[in-house]
Amino acid sequence: MSTRExxxxxxxxxxxxxxxxxxxxxxxxxxxxxxxxxxxxVTVDGRVAELGQRVTTDRHVEVDGTPxxxxxxxxxxxxxxxxxxxxxxxxxxxxxxxxxxTRDVPERLYxxxxxxxxxxxxxxLTNDGELAHVLAHPSFGVEKTYVxxxxxxxxxxxxxxxxxxxxxxxxxxxADAARVTGTSGDTSLVELTIHSGRNRVVRRMLDxxxxxxxxxxxxxFGPLRLGSLGSGRSRDATPVELGALxxxxxxxxxxxxxxxxxxxxx
Length: 266
Fold this sequence. Notes:
By secondary structure, this protein is α+β, with helices and mostly antiparallel strands. The chain folds into two domains: 3-72, RNA-binding S4 domain (Structural Genomics Hypothetical 15.5 Kd Protein In mrcA-pckA Intergenic Region, Chain A), CATH 3.10.290.10; 76-236, Pseudouridine synthase (2-Layer Sandwich). Helices cover 28% and strands 28% of the residues. It has seven helices and 17 strands. It has helices spanning 3-11, 18-24, 30-38, 129-136, 156-164, 201-208, 239-263, and strands spanning 16-17, 42-44, 47-48, 54-55, 61-63, 66-68, 76-81, 110-112, 120-126, 144-151, 166-168, 171-173, 177-184, 187-194, 213-221, 224-225, 234-236. Strands 7, 8, 9, 10, 13, 14, 15, 16 and 17 form a nine-stranded mixed beta sheet that branches. The protein has a four-stranded antiparallel beta sheet with strand order 3-2-5-6. β15 and β16 (224-225) form a beta hairpin. The model is unreliable at 1-12 (pLDDT under 50).
């Protein structure tokens, strides 16, 4: 059945009551959700919702301007990938892969982007193809933050170079943000934020300024943060994180619709 037909079913009174759906999505208890609806804080497809309104999972529902995922079949798993694991669901060389961390997950998940074999940290696994496309495509500018342990003591002038931009073999690149977070002996910790998806770009940037990477961890991916999640452990994205992820997708969809209209396409 098409999305249009599903929407028509929702408009004709089929689907679940909105307060039940939002409660099941983890927004709040049903009683609190009913209060949100009564206060006009909930919208369905851009219109203020009504108490008792029925919706289907294809509707765009927002609470206080933050999108809510109604489709319970969609899964968003935050993994702290260890080093020594390939960012793939299979490896033809027999190395450890991501299936090791999804064996108990009933949904078939895919990784959004990649982390190098020798890089650890935050990796998102999902079965939401539209969201995966937005997060992984460099044109949408989703920021990623890394902490690198590098050789040598990094000076303020070096941080300024990273922010201003440096030339790599595949073109210029600049950090969106960079700072030194600590030093110990002949090593430094550098926090670097970028939105580029180029291969091994953080390692190449730091190597280009004379500070080879010894260890590299991705701490943040868009609105997702690694926090205290242990190596090899995973968790579901929180409702707040999920709302922020969906907001990125909705914004990208609106921009795409505007561009299509300007191009004269449908």
